[in-house]
TrEMBL record:
Residues 73-90 have a biased composition (Basic and acidic residues). This is NADP-dependent oxidoreductase domain-containing protein. InterPro entries: NAD(P)_OxRdtase_dom_sf. Residues 66-100 are annotated as: Disordered.
C-alpha cells in the first residue's frame, strides 16, 4: 500500500481495491508513514474509498521514524491521526512499532 496516494491515485485506487477484493482478499496492511515523503496520505486515501469498510479490515502502524514513540502524548497523537484518516475505511488494528 506504500504507493497508494503517490504512484497509485484516483480511479486507480478503486480499481486496485476492486481487483484485490475479487481475489478474496480482505486484510489491508498499511502505515502512517506511507507513502514515503507524504506521511498519512495512504491512510487518508483508503479512508475516502466508498464501501471499503463493508468488506476490508485495515491494519496500520503508528509512525515511529525509526524509533518507537517515547511518550504517552506522542502515542496518543499517532493513534488519533491514524484513526481519523483510516477509520472510515474499516480500521481494524493499530500497531505500535518498536525500536529494537
Amino acid at each position: 500500500t506504500a504507493s497508494i496516494g503517490d504512484k497509485v491515485t484516483g480511479p486507480e485506487v478503486a480499481a486496485f481495491l476492486g481487483e484485490f477484493q475479487q481475489h478474496g482478499h480482505v486484510e489491508i496492511d498499511t502505515a502512517a508513514a506511507y507513502p514515503p515523503g507524504k506521511p498519512g496520505v495512504t491512510e487518508r486515501v483508503l479512508g475516502e474509498q466508498s464501501g471499503l469498510s463493508n468488506w476490508a479490515h485495515i491494519s496500520t502502524k503508528l509512525m515511529g521514524f525509526g524509533e518507537a514513540p517515547n511518550s504517552t502524548e506522542k502515542v496518543r497523537e499517532g493513534i488519533e491521526a491514524s484513526r481519523e484518516e483510516a477509520e472510515r475505511g474499516g480500521l481494524r488494528s493499530l500497531l505500535l512499532p518498536s525500536a529494537g
